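Collaborator request, handled under Task 6.
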Amino acid sequence: MSARFRLAHYTAKSASFFYIRWVRACVGKVLDVALSGMDGVDGGKVVFDGRDLSAVGENELSEIRRTKMGFVFQQPTMLKNLNIHDNIILPSMRGNRKNAAKILEKAGTLMKRIGIAELEKRDITQVLGGQLQRAGICRALMNSPKIIFGDEPTGSLNSKSAQEIMDIFSEINADGTAIMIVTHDAKIAAQTERIMLLMAGWKKSQ
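Structure tokens returned to the collaborator:
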């Protein structure tokens, strides 16, 4: 997957809520990957939290993504052999078992806030799509990230569930977390602060 586009200069302020609508499917996804440091850029630089991601080693990049970024995908990547609760805490537990009590407490708090506390022992095959996406949001929030990248987070949901997820994102943003959503759904745009329309070769802000 590749795409060429030019983003001359854009600064996302802390706690901003912006939406990127792509015309070619690959373009938005490539930008998502570049801004999160998962892939490099041909020119210029991506600065996150004061750090030039192109100048950071892979181990440090992984740590930045784990502790300062959250990711919510169209299809939540959950392990089938773990229940909802264990899927939520798994990334936070890796290399951090000494803080297990705090991690468990935070997971419980988040699941209650997001509205899935009663589902914690369910297998991922025993919940609805919207509920599974809520679990994905809980997992993304476990390390109190500065930004959440949403890649088509409502793309597989019906309109009611999609709106519920957007309401949750709005609440998270109001608490101080920046949100970047990549999607082709223009209906979502009205609920964000800024829109960026991407096409191969150029970018248009609104």
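The cover message to the collaborator said: "The first helix runs from residue 25 to 35. The chain has a mean pLDDT of 80. Please let us know whether this matches your experimental observations."
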